[in-house]
């Protein structure tokens, strides 16, 4: 499977918009599927400058959400440990 960096994707979309050529023709010239190029164009329209973050990367909002969810899980785990420690401490005080 071929991978493309963000700059290449932006250049391909720009070629479609500026040349007036059909997406299929630009895709064929670039040796890629027209569906791929259509997808890039759609993502650019949807996410603007945050579009096409690259392989394995998330959109900035998705990345923030992932970090917040991880932080919540870490805090829940710490809370459970503290509750258990408090219960053990209270039991030993009697």
How many independent structural domains? 2
Strand content: under 5%
Based on secondary structure, the structural category is mainly alpha
Mean of residue pLDDT values: 83
The radius of gyration computed from the alpha-carbon positions, rounded to a whole number of angstroms, is 24 Å
Quaternary status of these chains?
A: single chain
Molecular structure report:
It is a single chain. This protein is mainly alpha-helical. It folds into two domains: 1-57, Arc Repressor Mutant, subunit A, CATH 1.10.10; 58-94. Helices cover 73% and strands 0% of the residues. It has helices at 6-19, 23-29, 34-47, 60-93. Helix 2 crosses helix 3 (34-47). The longest helix is centred in the last third of the chain and has 34 residues, at 60-93. It is rod-shaped, with a radius of gyration of 24 Å.
How are the SSEs ordered, and which strands pair?
Layout: H1 6-19, H2 23-29, H3 34-47, H4 60-93
Helix pairs in contact: 2-3
Protein traits:
Arc Repressor Mutant, subunit A; 0% strand; mainly alpha; 2 domains; 94 residues
Please summarize what this structure is.
The protein has four helices and no strands.
């Amino acid at each position: 499977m071929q991978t493309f960096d963000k700059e290449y994707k932006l250049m391909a979309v720009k070629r479609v918009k500026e040349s007036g050529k059909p997406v299929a023709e630009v895709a064929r010239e670039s040796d890629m599927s027209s569906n791929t190029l259509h997808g890039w164009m759609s993502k650019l329209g949807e996410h603007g400058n945050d579009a096409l973050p690259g392989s394995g990367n998330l959109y900035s909002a998705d990345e923030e959400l992932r970090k917040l969810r991880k932080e919540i899980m870490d805090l829940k785990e710490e809370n459970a440990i503290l509750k258990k420690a408090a219960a053990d401490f209270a039991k030993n005080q009697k």
